[in-house]
Amino acid sequence: MTAYSELSAHHGRIAALSNALGILHWDNAAVMPKGAAPRRAESVALLQVLRHGMATDPRIGDWLGEAEADDGLGAWERANLREIRRIWTAETALPADLVEASSRATSTCEMAWRQARQDSDFVGLLPHLSEVLRLQREIGQAKGEKLGLSPYDALLNDYEPGGRSDQIDRLFDDLAAFLPGLLDEVLAAQARRPTDAEPQGPFPVETQRALGVRMMEALGYDFDRGRLDVSAHPFCGGADDDVRITTRYDENDFSSALMGVLHETGHALYEQGRPQGWMSQPVGHARGMSLHESQSLLIEMQACRSREFLRFAAPIMRDAFGASGPGWEPDAVWRRYNRVAPGFIRVDADEVTYPAHVILRYRLEKALIADDLPLAELPAAWNAQMKELLGLTPPNDRVGCLQDIHWPSGGWGYFPTYTLGALTAAQLFDAARRAVPDIPSAIERGDFAPLLGWLRANVHAQASLLETDELLIQATGRTLDPAVFKAHLRRRYVEES
Protein backbone atom coordinates (compact mmCIF):
# COMPACT_ATOMS: atom_id res chain seq x y z
CA MET A 1 0.00 0.00 0.00
CA THR A 2 1.13 3.56 -0.66
CA ALA A 3 1.44 6.04 2.19
CA TYR A 4 -1.70 7.79 0.98
CA SER A 5 -3.72 4.56 0.88
CA GLU A 6 -2.50 3.72 4.40
CA LEU A 7 -3.74 7.12 5.60
CA SER A 8 -7.05 6.68 3.79
CA ALA A 9 -7.67 3.24 5.29
CA HIS A 10 -6.69 4.44 8.76
CA HIS A 11 -9.08 7.39 8.63
CA GLY A 12 -11.83 5.12 7.36
CA ARG A 13 -11.49 3.18 10.62
CA ILE A 14 -11.53 6.44 12.61
CA ALA A 15 -14.74 7.40 10.78
CA ALA A 16 -16.36 4.10 11.75
CA LEU A 17 -15.56 4.75 15.41
CA SER A 18 -16.80 8.36 15.12
CA ASN A 19 -20.07 7.06 13.68
CA ALA A 20 -20.57 4.81 16.71
CA LEU A 21 -19.91 7.79 19.00
CA GLY A 22 -22.36 9.89 17.01
CA ILE A 23 -25.17 7.39 17.54
CA LEU A 24 -24.33 7.15 21.25
CA HIS A 25 -24.46 10.94 21.59
CA TRP A 26 -27.84 10.99 19.82
CA ASP A 27 -29.09 8.24 22.13
CA ASN A 28 -27.85 10.18 25.19
CA ALA A 29 -29.89 13.21 24.18
CA ALA A 30 -32.99 11.56 22.74
CA VAL A 31 -33.85 8.27 24.45
CA MET A 32 -31.34 7.18 27.10
CA PRO A 33 -32.87 6.74 30.58
CA LYS A 34 -31.27 8.91 33.27
CA GLY A 35 -30.12 5.90 35.25
CA ALA A 36 -27.90 4.79 32.38
CA ALA A 37 -25.85 7.98 32.38
CA PRO A 38 -22.87 6.87 34.57
CA ARG A 39 -22.26 3.65 32.59
CA ARG A 40 -22.75 5.47 29.31
CA ALA A 41 -20.19 8.08 30.33
CA GLU A 42 -17.67 5.27 30.88
CA SER A 43 -18.36 3.80 27.45
CA VAL A 44 -18.15 7.12 25.64
CA ALA A 45 -14.95 8.10 27.46
CA LEU A 46 -13.28 4.83 26.42
CA LEU A 47 -14.35 5.25 22.81
CA GLN A 48 -13.09 8.86 22.82
CA VAL A 49 -9.71 7.68 24.08
CA LEU A 50 -9.58 4.95 21.44
CA ARG A 51 -10.43 7.46 18.71
CA HIS A 52 -7.82 9.90 20.04
CA GLY A 53 -5.24 7.11 20.03
CA MET A 54 -6.02 6.32 16.40
CA ALA A 55 -5.94 10.01 15.42
CA THR A 56 -2.49 10.42 17.05
CA ASP A 57 -0.97 7.18 15.77
CA PRO A 58 2.79 7.90 15.32
CA ARG A 59 2.67 6.33 11.87
CA ILE A 60 0.47 9.19 10.63
CA GLY A 61 3.37 11.65 10.68
CA ASP A 62 5.50 9.33 8.55
CA TRP A 63 2.67 8.58 6.15
CA LEU A 64 1.92 12.28 5.77
CA GLY A 65 5.51 13.15 4.95
CA GLU A 66 5.68 10.46 2.28
CA ALA A 67 2.23 11.13 0.82
CA GLU A 68 2.76 14.88 0.60
CA ALA A 69 5.80 14.20 -1.60
CA ASP A 70 3.70 12.11 -4.03
CA ASP A 71 3.25 14.12 -7.26
CA GLY A 72 0.59 11.73 -8.55
CA LEU A 73 -2.22 12.81 -6.22
CA GLY A 74 -5.23 14.80 -7.40
CA ALA A 75 -6.94 17.83 -5.89
CA TRP A 76 -9.23 15.83 -3.57
CA GLU A 77 -6.34 13.71 -2.29
CA ARG A 78 -4.22 16.82 -1.70
CA ALA A 79 -7.06 18.47 0.20
CA ASN A 80 -7.52 15.28 2.21
CA LEU A 81 -3.86 15.40 3.23
CA ARG A 82 -4.29 19.03 4.29
CA GLU A 83 -7.25 18.09 6.49
CA ILE A 84 -5.51 15.02 7.93
CA ARG A 85 -2.49 17.12 8.87
CA ARG A 86 -4.73 19.75 10.46
CA ILE A 87 -6.49 17.13 12.58
CA TRP A 88 -3.27 15.30 13.46
CA THR A 89 -1.54 18.51 14.56
CA ALA A 90 -4.41 19.45 16.87
CA GLU A 91 -4.96 15.95 18.26
CA THR A 92 -1.30 15.31 19.05
CA ALA A 93 -1.35 18.40 21.26
CA LEU A 94 -3.58 16.57 23.74
CA PRO A 95 -2.58 13.74 26.10
CA ALA A 96 -4.99 10.81 26.25
CA ASP A 97 -5.78 11.37 29.92
CA LEU A 98 -6.99 14.91 29.16
CA VAL A 99 -9.26 13.60 26.39
CA GLU A 100 -10.70 10.99 28.75
CA ALA A 101 -11.17 13.46 31.61
CA SER A 102 -12.93 15.93 29.33
CA SER A 103 -15.26 13.26 27.96
CA ARG A 104 -16.25 12.12 31.44
CA ALA A 105 -16.74 15.68 32.65
CA THR A 106 -18.94 16.71 29.74
CA SER A 107 -21.08 13.56 29.96
CA THR A 108 -21.66 14.20 33.66
CA CYS A 109 -22.22 17.92 33.22
CA GLU A 110 -24.67 17.50 30.34
CA MET A 111 -26.88 15.23 32.45
CA ALA A 112 -26.64 17.63 35.40
CA TRP A 113 -27.53 20.54 33.10
CA ARG A 114 -30.83 18.94 32.13
CA GLN A 115 -31.99 18.97 35.75
CA ALA A 116 -30.37 22.33 36.54
CA ARG A 117 -32.08 23.95 33.56
CA GLN A 118 -35.43 22.53 34.60
CA ASP A 119 -34.94 23.78 38.18
CA SER A 120 -33.21 27.05 37.26
CA ASP A 121 -30.39 25.92 39.55
CA PHE A 122 -27.06 27.40 38.45
CA VAL A 123 -25.51 26.76 41.85
CA GLY A 124 -26.25 23.05 41.49
CA LEU A 125 -24.59 22.97 38.06
CA LEU A 126 -21.59 25.07 39.10
CA PRO A 127 -19.23 22.31 40.30
CA HIS A 128 -19.83 20.24 37.14
CA LEU A 129 -19.50 23.23 34.80
CA SER A 130 -16.38 24.38 36.66
CA GLU A 131 -14.71 21.06 35.86
CA VAL A 132 -15.69 21.28 32.20
CA LEU A 133 -14.33 24.83 32.01
CA ARG A 134 -11.07 23.88 33.74
CA LEU A 135 -10.50 21.12 31.21
CA GLN A 136 -11.47 23.31 28.25
CA ARG A 137 -8.87 25.82 29.36
CA GLU A 138 -6.29 23.02 29.45
CA ILE A 139 -7.32 21.85 25.99
CA GLY A 140 -7.21 25.39 24.62
CA GLN A 141 -3.81 25.99 26.18
CA ALA A 142 -2.34 22.73 24.84
CA LYS A 143 -3.68 23.20 21.33
CA GLY A 144 -2.80 26.89 21.35
CA GLU A 145 0.84 26.16 22.16
CA LYS A 146 1.00 23.64 19.30
CA LEU A 147 -0.77 25.87 16.78
CA GLY A 148 0.59 29.27 17.84
CA LEU A 149 -2.85 30.50 18.87
CA SER A 150 -4.51 31.89 21.97
CA PRO A 151 -6.42 29.27 23.99
CA TYR A 152 -9.75 30.67 22.80
CA ASP A 153 -8.71 30.73 19.14
CA ALA A 154 -7.45 27.16 19.47
CA LEU A 155 -10.92 26.10 20.66
CA LEU A 156 -12.61 28.17 17.94
CA ASN A 157 -10.37 26.52 15.36
CA ASP A 158 -12.01 23.15 16.08
CA TYR A 159 -15.36 24.51 14.90
CA GLU A 160 -14.23 27.11 12.38
CA PRO A 161 -10.88 26.11 10.82
CA GLY A 162 -8.87 29.26 10.29
CA GLY A 163 -11.31 31.40 12.28
CA ARG A 164 -9.77 34.04 14.55
CA SER A 165 -11.33 36.10 17.32
CA ASP A 166 -9.82 39.39 16.12
CA GLN A 167 -11.75 39.00 12.85
CA ILE A 168 -14.91 38.08 14.73
CA ASP A 169 -14.47 41.03 17.09
CA ARG A 170 -14.50 43.42 14.13
CA LEU A 171 -17.56 41.80 12.54
CA PHE A 172 -19.48 41.62 15.82
CA ASP A 173 -18.60 45.15 16.88
CA ASP A 174 -19.88 46.36 13.51
CA LEU A 175 -23.14 44.43 13.94
CA ALA A 176 -23.53 45.58 17.56
CA ALA A 177 -23.31 49.18 16.30
CA PHE A 178 -25.69 48.61 13.35
CA LEU A 179 -28.47 46.56 14.93
CA PRO A 180 -29.92 48.95 17.57
CA GLY A 181 -30.75 51.61 14.96
CA LEU A 182 -32.15 48.99 12.62
CA LEU A 183 -34.25 47.53 15.45
CA ASP A 184 -35.83 50.94 16.02
CA GLU A 185 -36.73 51.16 12.31
CA VAL A 186 -38.07 47.62 12.28
CA LEU A 187 -40.28 48.13 15.33
CA ALA A 188 -41.66 51.35 13.83
CA ALA A 189 -42.45 49.59 10.55
CA GLN A 190 -43.95 46.66 12.42
CA ALA A 191 -46.25 48.96 14.40
CA ARG A 192 -47.82 50.04 11.09
CA ARG A 193 -48.77 46.48 10.17
CA PRO A 194 -52.21 44.98 10.83
CA THR A 195 -52.62 43.17 14.14
CA ASP A 196 -53.41 39.53 13.45
CA ALA A 197 -55.31 37.10 15.66
CA GLU A 198 -53.08 34.43 17.16
CA PRO A 199 -54.04 30.83 16.31
CA GLN A 200 -55.33 29.11 19.41
CA GLY A 201 -54.18 25.65 20.49
CA PRO A 202 -53.87 23.10 21.73
CA PHE A 203 -51.83 21.77 18.83
CA PRO A 204 -51.41 18.00 19.37
CA VAL A 205 -47.84 16.77 19.30
CA GLU A 206 -48.56 14.00 16.80
CA THR A 207 -50.10 16.52 14.39
CA GLN A 208 -47.10 18.81 14.83
CA ARG A 209 -44.78 15.91 14.12
CA ALA A 210 -46.69 14.95 10.96
CA LEU A 211 -46.52 18.56 9.77
CA GLY A 212 -42.77 18.62 10.41
CA VAL A 213 -42.28 15.41 8.45
CA ARG A 214 -44.31 16.84 5.54
CA MET A 215 -42.05 19.89 5.42
CA MET A 216 -38.87 17.83 5.76
CA GLU A 217 -39.94 15.75 2.77
CA ALA A 218 -40.67 18.90 0.75
CA LEU A 219 -37.20 20.21 1.54
CA GLY A 220 -35.59 17.02 0.26
CA TYR A 221 -34.67 15.20 3.50
CA ASP A 222 -34.08 11.48 2.94
CA PHE A 223 -35.89 9.46 5.63
CA ASP A 224 -34.11 6.31 4.42
CA ARG A 225 -30.97 7.88 5.90
CA GLY A 226 -32.31 9.62 9.00
CA ARG A 227 -35.14 10.19 11.46
CA LEU A 228 -36.94 12.81 13.56
CA ASP A 229 -37.03 12.58 17.37
CA VAL A 230 -37.42 14.71 20.52
CA SER A 231 -34.75 16.11 22.84
CA ALA A 232 -34.38 18.87 25.43
CA HIS A 233 -32.37 20.94 22.94
CA PRO A 234 -32.94 20.53 19.17
CA PHE A 235 -29.92 19.23 17.27
CA CYS A 236 -28.69 17.36 14.20
CA GLY A 237 -26.47 14.35 14.85
CA GLY A 238 -26.07 10.65 14.21
CA ALA A 239 -23.65 9.21 11.70
CA ASP A 240 -22.72 9.11 8.03
CA ASP A 241 -25.85 8.06 6.10
CA ASP A 242 -27.81 8.06 9.37
CA VAL A 243 -28.44 11.77 9.90
CA ARG A 244 -30.87 12.26 12.78
CA ILE A 245 -32.54 15.46 13.90
CA THR A 246 -34.57 16.38 16.98
CA THR A 247 -36.96 19.09 18.04
CA ARG A 248 -39.08 19.87 21.12
CA TYR A 249 -42.83 20.42 21.18
CA ASP A 250 -45.17 22.86 22.90
CA GLU A 251 -48.89 22.13 22.46
CA ASN A 252 -49.66 25.83 22.86
CA ASP A 253 -47.32 26.97 20.06
CA PHE A 254 -46.57 24.75 17.06
CA SER A 255 -44.34 27.29 15.31
CA SER A 256 -41.35 26.83 17.63
CA ALA A 257 -41.12 23.09 16.97
CA LEU A 258 -41.75 23.55 13.25
CA MET A 259 -39.03 26.16 12.86
CA GLY A 260 -36.72 23.94 14.89
CA VAL A 261 -37.40 21.11 12.45
CA LEU A 262 -36.74 23.35 9.44
CA HIS A 263 -33.51 24.63 11.01
CA GLU A 264 -32.18 21.17 11.79
CA THR A 265 -33.25 19.89 8.39
CA GLY A 266 -30.94 22.50 6.87
CA HIS A 267 -28.06 20.92 8.80
CA ALA A 268 -29.19 17.44 7.79
CA LEU A 269 -29.39 18.29 4.08
CA TYR A 270 -25.73 19.35 4.23
CA GLU A 271 -24.77 16.07 5.88
CA GLN A 272 -26.82 13.98 3.47
CA GLY A 273 -25.37 15.87 0.51
CA ARG A 274 -21.70 15.28 1.28
CA PRO A 275 -19.91 13.30 -1.47
CA GLN A 276 -20.38 9.55 -0.97
CA GLY A 277 -16.94 8.70 -2.31
CA TRP A 278 -15.26 10.80 0.40
CA MET A 279 -17.72 10.32 3.26
CA SER A 280 -15.24 8.47 5.51
CA GLN A 281 -12.33 10.82 4.86
CA PRO A 282 -11.60 14.19 6.50
CA VAL A 283 -11.93 15.97 3.14
CA GLY A 284 -15.47 14.61 2.95
CA HIS A 285 -16.52 16.27 6.20
CA ALA A 286 -18.53 19.49 6.32
CA ARG A 287 -16.13 22.42 6.00
CA GLY A 288 -16.83 24.07 9.35
CA MET A 289 -19.61 25.27 11.60
CA SER A 290 -20.11 28.69 10.02
CA LEU A 291 -20.96 26.90 6.76
CA HIS A 292 -23.01 24.33 8.66
CA GLU A 293 -24.97 27.05 10.44
CA SER A 294 -25.38 28.85 7.12
CA GLN A 295 -27.22 25.83 5.78
CA SER A 296 -29.66 25.64 8.71
CA LEU A 297 -30.25 29.39 8.71
CA LEU A 298 -30.56 29.56 4.95
CA ILE A 299 -33.37 27.00 5.08
CA GLU A 300 -35.09 28.30 8.21
CA MET A 301 -34.64 32.06 7.89
CA GLN A 302 -33.87 32.92 4.29
CA ALA A 303 -36.17 30.40 2.58
CA CYS A 304 -38.83 29.26 5.06
CA ARG A 305 -39.73 32.65 6.50
CA SER A 306 -40.11 34.11 3.02
CA ARG A 307 -43.48 35.14 1.62
CA GLU A 308 -43.09 32.52 -1.11
CA PHE A 309 -42.65 29.62 1.31
CA LEU A 310 -45.49 30.74 3.56
CA ARG A 311 -47.89 30.99 0.61
CA PHE A 312 -47.13 27.30 0.10
CA ALA A 313 -47.06 26.29 3.77
CA ALA A 314 -49.89 28.31 5.36
CA PRO A 315 -52.73 26.27 3.81
CA ILE A 316 -50.98 23.04 4.82
CA MET A 317 -50.62 24.30 8.42
CA ARG A 318 -54.28 25.37 8.50
CA ASP A 319 -55.51 22.03 7.17
CA ALA A 320 -53.25 20.02 9.47
CA PHE A 321 -54.89 21.52 12.55
CA GLY A 322 -58.38 21.75 11.08
CA ALA A 323 -58.31 25.52 11.59
CA SER A 324 -59.80 28.50 9.80
CA GLY A 325 -59.91 32.27 10.00
CA PRO A 326 -57.84 35.27 8.90
CA GLY A 327 -54.97 34.39 11.22
CA TRP A 328 -54.14 31.46 8.92
CA GLU A 329 -53.89 33.52 5.75
CA PRO A 330 -50.37 33.54 4.21
CA ASP A 331 -49.78 37.25 4.83
CA ALA A 332 -50.84 36.89 8.47
CA VAL A 333 -48.56 33.87 8.91
CA TRP A 334 -45.71 35.81 7.29
CA ARG A 335 -46.20 38.70 9.69
CA ARG A 336 -46.28 36.33 12.65
CA TYR A 337 -43.20 34.37 11.59
CA ASN A 338 -41.28 37.57 10.94
CA ARG A 339 -42.36 39.42 14.06
CA VAL A 340 -39.44 41.12 15.78
CA ALA A 341 -39.39 41.35 19.56
CA PRO A 342 -36.42 41.13 21.92
CA GLY A 343 -36.73 37.95 23.98
CA PHE A 344 -34.78 35.80 26.40
CA ILE A 345 -34.40 32.58 24.37
CA ARG A 346 -31.81 32.36 21.60
CA VAL A 347 -33.39 29.50 19.65
CA ASP A 348 -36.70 31.40 19.48
CA ALA A 349 -35.15 34.74 18.52
CA ASP A 350 -35.95 36.59 15.31
CA GLU A 351 -33.30 37.41 12.71
CA VAL A 352 -32.85 40.99 13.85
CA THR A 353 -32.19 40.28 17.53
CA TYR A 354 -30.53 36.85 17.13
CA PRO A 355 -27.02 38.25 16.60
CA ALA A 356 -27.20 39.97 20.00
CA HIS A 357 -27.74 36.58 21.65
CA VAL A 358 -24.62 35.26 19.95
CA ILE A 359 -22.49 38.34 20.68
CA LEU A 360 -23.44 38.00 24.36
CA ARG A 361 -22.32 34.35 24.52
CA TYR A 362 -19.18 34.99 22.50
CA ARG A 363 -18.02 37.78 24.80
CA LEU A 364 -18.76 35.75 27.91
CA GLU A 365 -17.07 32.53 26.79
CA LYS A 366 -13.96 34.43 25.71
CA ALA A 367 -13.78 36.03 29.16
CA LEU A 368 -14.36 32.68 30.89
CA ILE A 369 -11.65 30.87 28.91
CA ALA A 370 -9.22 33.74 29.58
CA ASP A 371 -10.14 33.56 33.31
CA ASP A 372 -11.19 37.20 33.17
CA LEU A 373 -14.63 36.28 34.51
CA PRO A 374 -15.11 33.94 37.51
CA LEU A 375 -17.62 31.24 36.58
CA ALA A 376 -19.65 31.89 39.72
CA GLU A 377 -20.34 35.40 38.39
CA LEU A 378 -21.69 34.13 35.06
CA PRO A 379 -25.41 34.67 35.86
CA ALA A 380 -24.85 38.30 36.83
CA ALA A 381 -22.58 38.93 33.84
CA TRP A 382 -25.10 37.26 31.52
CA ASN A 383 -27.93 39.40 32.83
CA ALA A 384 -25.87 42.58 32.50
CA GLN A 385 -24.94 41.76 28.88
CA MET A 386 -28.55 40.94 28.02
CA LYS A 387 -29.68 44.25 29.49
CA GLU A 388 -27.05 46.09 27.44
CA LEU A 389 -27.66 44.28 24.15
CA LEU A 390 -31.39 43.51 24.27
CA GLY A 391 -32.79 45.72 27.02
CA LEU A 392 -34.00 42.71 28.99
CA THR A 393 -33.18 41.14 32.36
CA PRO A 394 -33.91 37.40 32.67
CA PRO A 395 -36.24 36.58 35.57
CA ASN A 396 -34.32 33.37 36.27
CA ASP A 397 -31.31 31.40 35.06
CA ARG A 398 -33.47 28.90 33.18
CA VAL A 399 -34.14 31.55 30.55
CA GLY A 400 -30.72 33.09 31.15
CA CYS A 401 -27.36 31.37 31.35
CA LEU A 402 -28.77 27.82 31.65
CA GLN A 403 -30.74 27.80 28.40
CA ASP A 404 -28.04 26.34 26.10
CA ILE A 405 -26.41 22.92 26.17
CA HIS A 406 -23.17 24.05 24.51
CA TRP A 407 -20.98 24.88 27.52
CA PRO A 408 -22.04 21.85 29.61
CA SER A 409 -21.36 19.57 26.63
CA GLY A 410 -17.93 21.08 25.95
CA GLY A 411 -18.85 23.30 22.96
CA TRP A 412 -16.60 26.26 23.82
CA GLY A 413 -15.79 28.33 20.73
CA TYR A 414 -18.94 27.21 18.90
CA PHE A 415 -21.27 30.15 19.51
CA PRO A 416 -19.77 32.73 17.10
CA THR A 417 -20.38 30.37 14.20
CA TYR A 418 -24.13 30.99 14.50
CA THR A 419 -23.86 34.62 13.45
CA LEU A 420 -21.05 33.90 11.00
CA GLY A 421 -23.51 31.37 9.61
CA ALA A 422 -26.29 33.97 9.36
CA LEU A 423 -24.01 36.28 7.36
CA THR A 424 -22.96 33.39 5.13
CA ALA A 425 -26.56 32.22 4.65
CA ALA A 426 -27.63 35.63 3.35
CA GLN A 427 -24.73 35.73 0.93
CA LEU A 428 -25.29 32.17 -0.37
CA PHE A 429 -29.06 32.62 -0.78
CA ASP A 430 -28.50 35.89 -2.64
CA ALA A 431 -26.04 34.13 -4.97
CA ALA A 432 -28.38 31.16 -5.48
CA ARG A 433 -31.29 33.41 -6.50
CA ARG A 434 -29.09 35.34 -8.91
CA ALA A 435 -27.81 32.11 -10.45
CA VAL A 436 -31.22 30.38 -10.56
CA PRO A 437 -33.94 33.08 -10.80
CA ASP A 438 -36.72 30.44 -10.58
CA ILE A 439 -35.86 29.58 -6.95
CA PRO A 440 -38.47 31.90 -5.28
CA SER A 441 -41.33 30.83 -7.55
CA ALA A 442 -40.37 27.17 -7.13
CA ILE A 443 -40.43 27.55 -3.34
CA GLU A 444 -43.92 29.04 -3.63
CA ARG A 445 -44.95 25.79 -5.36
CA GLY A 446 -43.33 23.74 -2.59
CA ASP A 447 -40.51 22.72 -4.94
CA PHE A 448 -37.11 23.00 -3.29
CA ALA A 449 -35.25 21.11 -6.00
CA PRO A 450 -33.76 24.22 -7.69
CA LEU A 451 -32.45 25.60 -4.37
CA LEU A 452 -31.24 22.22 -3.13
CA GLY A 453 -29.57 21.54 -6.46
CA TRP A 454 -27.61 24.79 -6.24
CA LEU A 455 -26.62 24.08 -2.63
CA ARG A 456 -25.61 20.53 -3.47
CA ALA A 457 -23.30 21.71 -6.23
CA ASN A 458 -21.85 24.77 -4.53
CA VAL A 459 -21.71 23.80 -0.85
CA HIS A 460 -22.66 20.24 0.10
CA ALA A 461 -20.71 18.32 -2.54
CA GLN A 462 -17.67 20.55 -2.00
CA ALA A 463 -17.31 19.17 1.56
CA SER A 464 -13.82 20.25 2.74
CA LEU A 465 -12.19 20.43 -0.69
CA LEU A 466 -11.79 24.20 -0.28
CA GLU A 467 -11.06 26.50 2.64
CA THR A 468 -14.11 28.46 3.76
CA ASP A 469 -13.12 31.73 2.07
CA GLU A 470 -12.27 29.88 -1.15
CA LEU A 471 -15.66 28.18 -1.18
CA LEU A 472 -17.46 31.49 -0.63
CA ILE A 473 -15.53 33.17 -3.42
CA GLN A 474 -16.28 30.28 -5.78
CA ALA A 475 -19.99 30.22 -4.88
CA THR A 476 -20.72 33.94 -4.49
CA GLY A 477 -17.83 35.82 -6.06
CA ARG A 478 -16.53 37.36 -2.81
CA THR A 479 -15.40 36.65 0.72
CA LEU A 480 -17.79 37.08 3.64
CA ASP A 481 -19.51 40.46 3.31
CA PRO A 482 -21.86 41.59 6.13
CA ALA A 483 -23.43 44.15 3.78
CA VAL A 484 -25.50 41.37 2.17
CA PHE A 485 -26.96 40.35 5.54
CA LYS A 486 -27.68 43.96 6.50
CA ALA A 487 -29.44 44.56 3.19
CA HIS A 488 -31.52 41.41 3.69
CA LEU A 489 -32.64 42.54 7.15
CA ARG A 490 -33.60 46.00 5.92
CA ARG A 491 -35.46 44.62 2.90
CA ARG A 492 -37.47 42.03 4.81
CA TYR A 493 -38.20 43.85 8.05
CA VAL A 494 -38.47 47.49 6.97
CA GLU A 495 -39.17 47.69 3.24
CA GLU A 496 -41.46 44.64 2.88
CA SER A 497 -43.59 45.75 5.81
TrEMBL record:
<keyword id="KW-0121">Carboxypeptidase</keyword>
<protein>
    <recommendedName>
        <fullName>Metal-dependent carboxypeptidase</fullName>
        <ecNumber>3.4.17.19</ecNumber>
    </recommendedName>
</protein>
<feature type="binding site">
    <location>
        <position position="263"/>
    </location>
    <ligand>
        <name>Zn(2+)</name>
    </ligand>
</feature>
<dbReference type="GO" id="GO:0008270">
    <property type="term" value="F:zinc ion binding"/>
</dbReference>
<dbReference type="Pfam" id="PF02074">
    <property type="entry name" value="Peptidase_M32"/>
</dbReference>
<dbReference type="InterPro" id="IPR001333">
    <property type="entry name" value="Peptidase_M32_Taq"/>
</dbReference>
<dbReference type="GO" id="GO:0006508">
    <property type="term" value="P:proteolysis"/>
</dbReference>
<keyword id="KW-0862">Zinc</keyword>
<keyword id="KW-0378">Hydrolase</keyword>
<keyword id="KW-0645">Protease</keyword>
<comment type="function">
    <text>Broad specificity carboxypetidase that releases amino acids sequentially from the C-terminus, including neutral, aromatic, polar and basic residues.</text>
</comment>
<feature type="binding site">
    <location>
        <position position="267"/>
    </location>
    <ligand>
        <name>Zn(2+)</name>
    </ligand>
</feature>
<feature type="binding site">
    <location>
        <position position="293"/>
    </location>
    <ligand>
        <name>Zn(2+)</name>
    </ligand>
</feature>
<feature type="active site" description="Proton donor/acceptor">
    <location>
        <position position="264"/>
    </location>
</feature>
<keyword id="KW-0482">Metalloprotease</keyword>
<dbReference type="GO" id="GO:0004181">
    <property type="term" value="F:metallocarboxypeptidase activity"/>
</dbReference>
<keyword id="KW-0479">Metal-binding</keyword>
<comment type="similarity">
    <text>Belongs to the peptidase M32 family.</text>
</comment>
